[in-house]
Design brief:
The complex is a heterodimer of chains A (about 325) and B (about 375). Helix content of chain A is about 30%, strand content about 25%. Chain A is α/β, with parallel strands linked by helices and about 325 residues long. In chain A, the strands form 3 sheets. Chain A has a 6-stranded mixed beta sheet, with helices on both faces. Chain A has a 4-stranded antiparallel beta sheet with strand order 2-1-4-5. Chain B has 2 domains: about 230 residues, no CATH class; about 120 residues, 3-Layer(aba) Sandwich (abc type-2 transporter like fold), CATH 3.40.1710.10. Chain B has a 5-stranded mixed beta sheet with strand order 2-1-3-4-5, sandwiched between helices. The relative contact order of chain B is 0.12. Classes of the chains: A alpha/beta (about 325), B alpha/beta (about 375). Chains A and B meet through helix 3 of A and helix 1 and helix 9 of B.
């Protein structure tokens, strides 16, 4: 069961000037391929911002530009108040990225992996052990990474992303391939970061995860943002258009399932009767999921790659 | 550029790479070969030798007397071989071909003139690589002629150097030392063209370089990777030279050749990482590239055709080996330091610039 973040928790856009992520009309071409077509958005301090889309939608290219690893063709973007092109060095120290790949030095220990990046960022000496403890792999700190499980490696990748205590953290498909427990632990840490004021920009295929974690999401399709709002608003909007928002699915004590239209007085009375008689086992709203919203907006499911497009920088 | 970040990456690479069995083997094998060469080929016979040609017409009795007197007068510890030649031009060719160290042209009436106190001129033709022993023989001439004339001073000696035709590096350096230096070239070639690019290719393949480029600038990562190759090459070469005890007469020239070769080959080798982009592919196909790059270093001791020599001299291993040979000897056999530096710069700078462009293209 997902627990969407309430709208009231969305951090205020009136956060300190220049903080978070500010993207304006960002474009990236790879030869003839238009990977990103003029996207604009802001992610505020303390906000978890989701970039959702199918393979080839432009998510990874956007992250590469925002982390200073690929120059944009045009447009501007600032991270932590610093332009990613003109002030790349200043922005570099304020951001970090949790990669989708578990790109770790497998012949080194977990601690040595973290220490390398702690030294590169000039982080305090005790930062390494603190992070290993925080992500729950302190007991394996001295083991070579090649002996780690997938979940342990992903936790180490997350710890590496936190080593410089970034103001802005990008997470690229952070829970892909993780077991449910590891994924849940990672989400807990993301929430803690958000609560502490870190701007988190998350790309994911997992709509449930996005619904649970993100204050706002942007749907990318063929390099452009086709929708940007809170998950709740997006679901209600699409639900309203489909007439699904006012429906509920009811399971009774005889295991029979019924769909009730809530603004129909006759069906409303029927539901009240079941409730009075104590026959109702469960009631589920029938609003669309974020995946339904994406299909409604992009015209295809997340499992389908963009036609004729590739994630150019992937 | 932050030297601190370069050092951090370098330290990691030095420790991480040595744990990779492939890289360890690439470093150890040429060192082992060099040690094996030094054991197989014994030290050159240290006993001084000299080949002397005494030149005089068949009727020149003084020349015949001198050819008998010289071996008698030299110390017994010297190995002096004296031959008699009537044709001065033939004697000159013998010296030029390095078949003799020195030729002594004896004029008619030498002893009579010396006895009369007229200090007759005695011409010597000295070979391009005349041994110190041959020089000692020349110094001995006045005394020998004096004994024949029964009075000093005997003669005035005029020394004329003969231009070299084809230096025999192997003879000059000794087979053992030559092969050890060739093993140094092999060590540098293996480390520069295999071990170092494998370190970078593995980073590209496993995408750890993406994380590095997030925390450090491209030139810092590049400098650290180049330094890995330079440090490993320098240390491995030093170990090989220490184990074999090859004498180095002029360390400055030797180190110039060694470091120039290391830097240029490492710079070129790093480009291979971006060509292959896979440690396994590099480990398979890199060997094909190693051969043409290190062979010019192996063949400096032979006399190749002009076109081949031009190609070999355009390769860092060829120039590096030449400077190392020169540095191992008291005098230049090849010379040409400016050309060597030019070749090193073109290869090294070209490689590093190309790699820098590749990294920029990737958006580092």
């Amino acid at each position: 069961m997902t627990v969407p973040r309430p709208a009231a928790e969305i951090p205020s856009p009136g956060a300190p000037s220049g903080a978070g992520v500010v993207v304006a009309d960002l474009v990236k071409h790879y030869g003839e391929v238009q990977a990103v077509r003029g996207i604009s958005f802001e992610a505020h301090p303390g906000e978890v911002f989701g970039l959702l889309g199918h393979n080839g939608a432009g998510k990874t290219t956007t992250i590469r530009m925002l982390t200073g690893r690929t120059p944009p063709t045009s447009g501007t973007a600032a991270v932590g108040g610093h332009d990613i092109v003109d002030e790349r060095e200043a922005a570099r120290g304020l951001l970090n990225l949790v990669f989708e790949d578990q790109n770790l030095y497998e012949r080194l220990s977990g601690r040595d992996n973290l220490k390398l990046f702690a030294d590169l960022y000039g982080a305090p000496a005790d930062r390494t052990d603190e992070l290993l403890e925080r992500v729950g792999i302190a007991s394996a700190a001295k083991r070579k990474v090649k002996t780690y499980s997938t979940g342990m490696k992903q936790r180490l990748v997350l710890a590496r992303g936190l080593v410089n205590d970034p103001q802005v953290l990008f997470l690229d498909e952070p829970t892909r391939g993780l077991d449910p427990m590891s994924a849940r632990n990672l989400r807990t840490i993301v929430r803690e970061l958000s609560d502490a004021g870190t701007t988190v920009v998350l790309t994911t295929h997992d709509m449930v995860e996005a619904d649970e974690l993100c204050h706002r999401v942007a749907f990318l399709s063929e390099g452009a943002i086709v929708a940007l709002d809170t998950p709740r608003e997006l679901k209600l909007k699409v639900g309203d258009e489909a007439g699904a928002s006012r429906r509920a699915r009811v399971v009774l004590d005889d295991r029979s399932e019924h769909t009730v239209v809530l603004d129909d007085p006759e069906q409303d009375e029927r539901l009240s009767g079941w409730l009075r008689d104590g026959r109702v086992l469960t009631v589920h709203s029938d609003e669309p999921s974020l995946a339904d919203v994406f299909v409604a907006l992009a015209g295809r499911s997340l499992d389908e790659d963009a036609p004729g497009r590739t994630e150019a920088a992937a | 550029m932050s030297l601190s970040r370069v050092w951090t990456i370098l330290r990691k690479d030095l420790l991480d790479a040595i744990r990779d069995g492939r890289i360890l083997a690439i470093i150890i094998v040429p060192i082992a070969l060099g040690v094996m060469y030094s054991l197989i080929y014994p030290d050159e016979e240290p006993r001084p030798t000299a080949d002397v040609v005494v030149v005089g017409s068949p009727s020149n009795t003084d020349a015949k007397r001198l050819s008998v007197a010289l071996p008698r007068d030299v110390d017994r510890s010297l190995d002096l071989k004296v031959t008699y030649e009537s044709d001065q031009e033939q004697a000159r060719e013998t010296v030029a071909d390095d078949d003799a160290d020195v030729a002594i042209v004896v004029p008619e009436g030498l002893v009579a003139d010396a006895k009369a106190g007229r200090a007759p001129p005695l011409t010597t033709l000295v070979g391009p690589k005349a041994s110190p022993t041959a020089r000692a023989v020349i110094d001995l001439l006045p005394a020998t002629v004096g004994k024949l004339a029964d009075r000093p001073p005997a003669v005035q000696v005029a020394v004329r150097d003969v231009e070299p035709q084809s230096p025999s590096v192997v003879d000059e350096l000794g087979l053992r030392n030559y092969f050890v230096l060739a093993a140094v070239v092999m060590t540098i070639g293996f480390i520069g063209l295999l071990a170092t690019p494998i370190v970078l290719a593995e980073e590209i393949e496993k995408r750890t370089i993406e994380a590095l480029l997030l925390a450090a600038r491209g030139p810092e990562v590049l400098a650290a990777k180049a330094l890995v190759g330079i440090v490993y090459s320098a240390v491995a070469s030093a170990i090989l030279l220490a184990l074999t005890g090859v004498p180095i007469e002029r360390p400055a020239i030797f180190v110039l050749g060694l470091l120039g070769m290391v830097i240029s080959i490492v710079g070129f080798g790093l480009c291979l990482a971006y060509v292959f982009r896979s440690a396994d592919k590099l480990n398979t196909w890199g060997w094909v590239i190693v051969m043409p790059v290190i062979v010019p270093g192996f063949v400096v001791g032979v006399d190749p055709p002009g076109w081949a020599d031009a190609i070999f001299q355009a390769v860092p291993s060829g120039q590096g080996m030449r400077l190392m040979v020169d540095g191992a000897l008291p005098e230049d056999v090849f010379g040409g330091v400016p050309l060597a530096i030019l070749v090193f710069l073109v290869w090294g700078a070209g490689g590093l610039l190309l790699l820098s462009r590749l990294l920029q293209k990737r958006g580092s």
